[in-house]
Design goal:
single chain, alpha+beta, 4-stranded antiparallel beta sheet, 3-stranded antiparallel beta sheet, 15 helices, rod-shaped
Length: 627
């Protein structure tokens, strides 16, 4: 038969169990607002009873463990949707900022500037000799160019800012992953040999897992899953092997940490590449492998694939906008200059052709020159046409060559009777000189210049594209591609501007072809220019549209992506809130519930104390009998 002291021990175990319950409840209450804290429960069971002749006599209670009320399945969904929400929040925030750069409403924005630019040409065509109108045209041109530059710079600055955020986030990932590997070691040590659960360490690990998922879209794979139905019907715990990975690349493998590396040496403009370090030290490019979390959003916005030649991304929403703006600006510059080259002058100089085209096919070069022809035309002092010669361009045409060869030089310098009058002194080669060489500033440029004697007599020349139909884009685009006799300078949205000569002296802007008073044919062509379709190349895509149309494509692209991001964010936020509520309903501390438990354990503690008091009285009775 158990002794009275055994009964006293039963009361003591009840006191101890109640005290642990109160301590656990107090711990829950104290951490009710601690991020990532999971409520805990004390698991009790009856001690092994004492066998007697009369049966098994109870032996009190014992604390088996203190377990978290935690559902891994809900937590996995919670971290996954947290990654989606971080991606969606950042995407929406960035695109809403981007959309403010395209305020194409109420007469504000590039499109409004474009309309003012064409209206200025219309006014100029009506008054081709008015210097004040020329000044206004120059001003509207500069406003348009400046706004295009500013918009592109804003987009590029936004792209650079999120590139800087990429570096900060990757450094944070490395820091958190390193902490996670150390926590895994601490958890293994605390739970070694099947000991008690390292609840608070596991909570800290879950916080790191969720944070890493939000930043980089990581996934956790762990070993065996065991249920904790004693705590809650939905509670379970994973134990065993542990890996945290990003699209199959393990950042944390147990207590081993594989750092991510940042490198921007391959990009002239400082765009970062991210790589993964394998166990053998080899670096594997990771830009295009990261799809989730904030970093995934950064790559989809900034661009993930970096071109090794230009150093800028070849994809990404922001890069696409920049590329579209560049194509819009370059198309505007080339097509405008191709028309303006038909205004007569005494000297034309091209842009830097970058490479020597003396013996290279013009069609096969990077310049936007098409098969076709252009006319070289000479005018006298009265604006009368003196000579005209067609310069043909096919797949084999090069820049330089001997007289009569299939080259621009050979055709310009050829001794041909352009007028069919038998006069050997009034042909194109008698007036215009060809020069293609490296200039003093190291640039490879083409120059057409009027013979000094002819220039002194008032002769001028022009380059006019030969169109195969009524479309302005049906010619060779030779002058536009090279920038001969240009009105606009630059080759992208970053450097488009009015030619320096016209910035300094707007009154020298030409309205006509021949240079005579009242001639407004160039201005009329510029007005028509806004209605003409041209090819705008953006990466692998080509858009055949007007200058207005190309800008509309860019503005619409921004608007569609922004609206899609807003709608997506609303959906993801709803999913996140629902999943968070489900997770909180299982694991978050409920103060009302804890207060109820506190009263329960307080009552239990008092009852166990009463048992001890009763046993004490029994012992006093026994001692009194002995006396």
């Amino acid at each position: 038969m158990p002794s009275i002291f055994n009964s006293l021990n039963i009361g003591y175990t009840g006191l101890s169990a109640a005290q642990v319950g109160i301590s656990t409840t107090g711990h829950n209450i104290a951490n009710a607002e601690t991020e990532g804290y999971t409520r805990q429960r004390a698991i009790t069971s009856a001690n092994t009873p004492i066998s007697t002749r009369n049966g098994s006599v109870g032996n009190g209670t014992e604390i088996q463990d203190i377990k978290r009320v935690f559902d891994n399945f809900v937590f996995d969904r919670y971290t996954a949707v947290a990654a989606d929400k971080e991606y969606s929040d950042f995407e929406q925030q960035t695109l809403e900022t981007l959309s403010t750069y395209f305020p194409e409403i109420d007469g504000v924005g590039i499109k409004a500037d474009l309309a003012n630019y064409y209206n200025a040409w219309q006014t100029f065509a009506d008054n081709p000799s008015n210097d004040a109108i020329k000044v206004n045209l120059a001003k509207e041109t500069q406003n348009l160019a400046k706004h295009i530059q500013q918009t592109r710079e804003q987009v590029f600055t936004l792209q650079s800012q999120i590139n800087d955020q990429l570096a900060a986030n990757i450094n944070q990932v490395n820091d958190l992953a390193s902490q996670l590997s150390e926590l895994n070691t601490a958890i293994d040590n605390a739970e070694v040999g099947g000991g008690f659960s390292a609840n608070d360490l596991r909570d800290k690990r879950n916080v790191l897992e969720k944070t890493l998922s939000r930043i980089i879209g990581s996934d956790v794979n762990q070993g065996q899953l065991s249920a904790n139905t004693q705590v809650d019907s939905n509670s379970n715990t994973r134990t065993g092997s542990y890996t945290l990975s990003v699209n199959g690349f393990n950042l944390v493998d147990g207590n081993t940490f594989h750092p991510l590396h940042l490198n921007k040496e391959s990009s002239q403009v400082g765009f970062y590449n991210v790589s993964y370090e394998r166990q053998d030290g080899a670096l594997i490019p990771l830009n295009e492998e990261i799809k989730g979390g904030k970093v995934g959003a950064i790559f989809d916005l900034r661009g993930a694939a970096i071109d090794t030649t230009s150093g800028v991304p070849t994809d990404g929403v922001l890069q696409n906008v920049i590329s579209q703006l560049d194509s819009f600006a370059n198309g505007l510059v080339e097509s405008t200059n191709n028309l303006y080259a038909s205004s007569s002058t005494t000297r034309m100089e091209s842009n830097d052709t970058k490479i020597d085209l003396s013996n290279r096919s013009l069609i096969a070069s990077d310049l936007n020159i098409n098969p076709g022809a252009f006319d070289m035309i000479v005018y006298d002092l009265d604006g009368q046409e003196v000579a005209r010669r067609a310069i043909n361009i096919d797949q084999a045409t090069v820049m330089s060559g001997t007289v009569g060869s299939n080259s621009i030089e050979g055709q310009v310098e050829a001794d041909i009777d352009d007028n069919g009058d038998g006069n050997g002194n009034n042909n194109i080669n008698d007036f215009v000189h060809f020069n293609y060489q490296i200039s003093a500033d190291g640039e490879q440029k083409l120059q057409f210049s009027m013979d000094p004697l002819a220039e002194s007599k008032g002769y001028t020349f022009a380059v006019a594209d030969k169109l195969t139909d009524t479309d302005f884009s049906s010619g060779s685009n030779f002058a536009g591609a090279l920038g001969l006799g240009n009105y606009l300078e630059g080759d992208s949205a970053a450097n488009i501007q009015l030619k320096l000569q016209y910035r300094d002296n707007p009154t020298s802007i030409a309205a006509g072809i021949s240079g005579t008073a009242g001639d407004n044919r160039v201005a009329l062509n510029m007005i028509q220019h806004q209605f003409e379709n041209y090819d705008f190349d953006v990466g692998a895509n080509t858009y055949n549209t007007t200058t207005y149309g190309m800008f509309d494509i860019t503005a619409t692209y921004v608007g569609i992506n922004t609206n899609a991001a807003i709608l997506k964010n609303e959906t993801v936020s709803t999913q996140y809130n629902a999943t968070e509520l489900e997770y909180f309903s299982t694991s978050k501390v409920n103060i009302d519930e804890e207060m109820t438990n506190l009263i329960k354990y307080q009552t239990s503690y008092g009852a166990a104390a009463k048992v001890i008091t009763t046993i004490d009285q029994m012992m006093q009775t026994l001692l009194g009998i002995k006396q």
